[in-house]
Amino acid sequence: MRYDKTLPQLWIIQVNVAWSPSPHEAALQLAFEQDYQVILIQEPWISAFRTRRLSKHHPAYNLFTPIEDWAHKPRTLTYIRKHPQLKAELVPYGPQPSRDLTAVQVGSGDQQVTLMNLYNAPPGSVDAGEGLKHLLSQTLPTRPCLVAGDFNLHHSSWQTNTISSAGAEHLLQWVEHQGMTLMLEPNTPTHDNNTIDLTWANRPLVCLGTHTEPALGFPVLADHIALSTTVHWHPVNNTKPVPPLQMATMQEDIFHSVIHKGAAALGEPPPTQLDLTPEALDQYTTAIIQAITNALEASTKRAHAHPSGHRWWNQDCQEAVLALRKVSRDPDSPLTEVETTQRNFRRTVCQAKRHYWQTQLDSFTDSQDVFRAIKWNRTVGSFPIPPLKNGEIVHTTSDAKAELLVKTLLQKAACMDDIPIELSDSSEASLPFPTITTGETYQAIFRAKSSTPGQDEISNAVLKKAWPALGPHISALYKHCAATGWHPTPFCQALLVALPKPGKKDYSSPHSYRLIALLSTLGKGLKCLIAHRLAWVAIKHKVLHPQQFGALPCRSATDLAAALVHDIEESWARGLSASMLTMDVKGAFDAVLSGRLIQLACLDWVLRSALLGTLPVYRTTRTAILHRESAIPPVELLLDQRRRSLAIRIHQLDTQHPLHLRVTHQPNRYISTRLLRAADPKNFHFIEQVDPLLTSPWDSNLEPKEQPTATPKAQAREEFQRWLDFIPPLSMVVYTDGSKGKEGTAAGAGWAGYWGTSRTKIFSGHAKLPNHEVFDAEARAALLGLQAALKDPKTQHSTNIYICLDNLEAVQQLRGQPRESSQSIFMNFQEAAQTWPQRPRAPGIQSGTVQVKWVPGHTGIEGNEEADKEAKMGCYAPLELPPPPASLAAAKRAAQRVHWQCFAQFWAEKASKHYKDLGIGLEKRPPELLLPRAALGRLLAARSGHGDFAEYHERFKHDDALLTCSCGRRKEPSHFYFCREGRKAAAHPWGQQPVADILTKKTGFTAYADWLGKSQFYTAICRRHWDAKCINLGTYRLTSGSLLLHSSSLLFRLFSFPSIFPFVHPPSSPFPPLGFLFEKTPRCTVYCLTVGKPKQPPARGATCI
C-alpha cells in the first residue's frame, strides 16, 4: 500500500473467527497482505483476564472496542488501517454502548462513512438477539453508512427455501425505513450453506458505488466465509500530512556540511557583555533551530512509517493458508478433510510463533535486549481514545477531544480564587549565580537522556551531532537567557499527548487521562541547566529546610523513607509514641495499588518466580541452582548488600544531609536503629568522607577533552618524548604511579623526580596505603610526589613542576574538581599546586606553575618505569602509623567482596549433590548463559537432573512419560554421550573429553550446544513425546491383511511405544489409510503389526517381525 497516494476505494473485510486465537491472528495478517483498510471481526478472541482488556493486535491496524469495561467480553472488534490519509473515530450509537455493536466513523478528505460492526447472538446463547435490538433501537445518520456482521437470521429475502427467524421481519422493516439495500448476493452461503452474514448500505453509500462478495483470497479460517466490501468513495480535498523524518536515513557528511554553513551564516556569537532583548533572544533561538532544521532536511529523508505484518508469519504459514484455501474452495472436499486442514493450519501458526519468539530469545546478547523484550508482553490492551463526555455533550472528533482535554486538565482556576502572597520587606540575600560556562552547556546537552523531540523534530542525538558547529552559539544563547531571565518563545511551544491513566473504569471522562508536553530538546537543556544550578544553590546556601526532599541533589524519596524509619525506631527506643501527618494531593497517587505492595516474606517467592521465567529449567529445579545459574544471590543476601551500600552512601552525603546528621549526631549511644546498625557510627571515621556539593556547577572543568588513550602506545610514547625534549631546562619532572598486588588489600604509591631535560633522578619514594585502590594510590602518589618536589633544595632554581602519571581519570581530577574517592587528596594537591608560584626562588629564576601531564604507561619511559617499581615496593613496605582512612573505592570493593563471600558460602551449603559431584562452583558471569536458550535448557537439565529423564519421571510419578530413547536405552542426563543414534546423526565434536568436562567447561558445553544443533538429538532422536507420524517406516506393501515393513531401525524405534498405540497413516503413503495397532507380545523382542480399527483387539495371524 502506497502511503503517499489517495485512497479511491475503501476495502472492508468481515469475518467471524469463533473466539479462536489462530484464525483471529490469521485474519488480521491476511487482511494486511491484501491491503484491506477495515477489518470487522465478530466473536473475536478475548483473553480470560478481562480486566487487562487483551485481544489480538496487529502492528498495521488500530483496534476499536465497543465497550470500555470488559467484564462481559465484547463480541465485535473493528480494526482500521494506520494510514496518514485515513482518519477513524469511535462514535456512540444509542444512549448506552453495546458489546455487540461497534460504530466507527472512517474519513478521508471530504468523504465520511459510518461502519456498523454487528454480532447478533443466536437463540440459546447468552444475551440472544441483543445486538439486533440495539441496532433497531436507533436511527442511522444521514451520511453514508454500512451495517455488516453476523446476523444469525434466516429469511427468504437473502436465502430462499428457508424458515424465517424471529426478528428477521423486524430487521426488514427497519432497513426499509432506513432506506438500506442488501449488498450481498442472495443465496450466497456464509456458514454451513446458510446465509447469515449480511451487509447493508444506505442510499448515500450505494450512490458512491458499493458491492459485497465472498473474499476469494480468504480461506475458511473458522466456520464462516469472509465477505469483502468495496466502497468507491474517491475522496477529494485530501491534504497530505507531512511525513516524519526517518533518522536512520541521515547522511552525516551532508548534515555536517550544511550545519557548518548554517553556523557560518549565524556569524560570531554575541558577546556576554551585550544585553539582548527578549525579542532578540527569540530571533536568535529561531535562527539556531532553523540552522539545525535545514541540515536535517538536506540530509534526512521524510517518509511515513510502513507498518509491517506479524514478524512470526513465515513461509510455512503461507503454505498452510494456500492448502486451506484450496480445500475450502473445492466443493467435493469432505468435511473431515476441511477440519483436518484447519487444525494443521492452526498448529502451523502456533509453531511459527513459538519458533520466532524462541529465536528472538536465543539471539539475546545484553540487557538492552531484555528490556526490549519486556514490551512484547502486552499487559493491558491499548485503544484509541473513545468519545469523551462533558456533561450531556459527547465529543467524537479529534479536535473536539483535544479542546476538551486542554480545557479540563490545563486551565487553571481564576486568579480571584488564588491565595494572596504576603511578603515582608527584607533585604535581598546575595546568592552566587555567575555566567553560564561552555562546560555547563556541553554537559546539559550531552548528559540529557534520550526523549521524544518536540515540534521542531530535533532530538538529543541531533543536538550532539550539531554541537561541533553550533556549540558556541548554543552556549551564548544559554548565557544570555540566564542573564536576561527570559525563556525563549520557541521553547514554550509543545505538542500535547494524552495518555490514559491505568485502572480507570470510565475512559469517556477527560479526568481519566493525563497530558504530557513534548518540548524542544534545546529548551530542555536550558531548563535542566538552570534547575541544576538552583538545586545546588538551595542546598549549599541553606535556602531550603534541611528536611526538604525531592528534586534536590542526594535527597531522594528513599532517603526520606530511611530518615522516617529511623525517627520512628528512635522514638520507640525512647519509650515514646510516634505520630506522622501525611498530606495527599487529590489524584496524585490514584494508581498506587496498596494490595500489591510486596511484603518482605514474598520477596523470595517473587525472585524464584522471576528466575524460573528467565532460565529454561523445569519448575521443580532447586532454588539454589536457580541462584547459581543466574548469578543472582538470594533476597536475604541482596538486602544485606543494599544495607552495606547504604552505609557507604552516607559517606558520600554532605554534612547537612538528614541521614548524615542522624548518624553523626546521635546523643544516645545505646539507641539502635536500622540506619545506625548499617552505618556503624563507632567506626564511621574509618572511611573517608566525600562532599558531593564541593563542586559547583559553574566551577567544574566539564568541557570535552581529547582521549590520549585512543592513540597507539608507540605513537603516544614518541609524542611524550618529543614534549619532554622541549620543556624548559630549569624544570622538575615528577613521575608518579599506583599499584596493588594480587593478594591483600593494600595499595602502593610511588614517585620519582627528575631534573629538567637532563633526566637526572634527584629523589624517589614510596608509601603503603592499606584499604586503598589503584586509583586512590595514583592520587596519593601525585600528592606525595609534589610534596617531595617542594621540599627538594633544587626547587628554588626551578620554574615549572610537571606531574606525569598514566591514569587518565586521575589526571582529569587533578586538573579539575574531584567528585568521589580520594576527594580530599585531590583538593590537597590543588592547594599545594596553588602555593608553588609564590614560593621564593633564586635570583633570575622566573615563577612557574604546576602542570599535570598524562604519560603512556608501560612503554619504556624511564621515569614512568621507575615510579612503577617504587609503587610495587610500596605495596609491601612497612605500614606508617596512623594509617589513613579507607578510601571510598576500597570500601565499595570490600562490600562487593563480602557480598560474594556470603554468596559463595550459601552455595557451599545449599549446592545439590549433582553439582557437587561435577565440581561446579560460583561464577560472576556464567559463560553458559551465552548459549542458545534451547541448548542452555538441556545443559541445565543434565546438570541438575531435573529434565526429561527416566529417574526424574519415576520420582515424580509421571505415568505417561516416555522413559526410553529411540535407541532403546533409558533416558539419563549423560545419555547423549553414549547414544548410538546420536553418534550416527552427528559426530561428537568434544573428542575424548569426559561427560563432566562437557557439562562444566566452556569448551565442552560450547561443543555440546553445537552438536545439539547439528544432530537434532532431543527433537528427532531422544524426544520427549514420540510422534508416530515421524517414524521412518522405510518401504512397505500390503499383503493379504498384513503389513510387511522393511526397515533395519524400526525394531529399536518400536520399543518406545506403549503396549497398544494407534498408528498414524503417513501423508505420502500410496495406500489408503488403515487403522493399525502395535501390540507388544510377551517376548519383548517381538512386535505384532495387526490390521484393525483403533481400540479393538488385534487380529490373529498377523505377520510378526
UniProtKB/TrEMBL annotation:
PROSITE patterns per record: RNASE_H_1
Please state every residue range assigned to the domain named RNase H type-1.
728-876
Record's SUPFAM superfamilies? DNase I-like, Ribonuclease H-like
Q: Which GO terms describe its molecular function?
A: nucleic acid binding; RNA-DNA hybrid ribonuclease activity
Q: Which InterPro entries match?
A: Endo/exonu/phosph_ase_sf (IPR036691), Endo/exonuclease/phosphatase (IPR005135), RNaseH-like_sf (IPR012337), RNaseH_domain (IPR002156), RNaseH_sf (IPR036397), RT_dom (IPR000477)
What is the name of this protein? Answer: RNase H type-1 domain-containing protein
Which species is listed as the source? Aspergillus cristatus
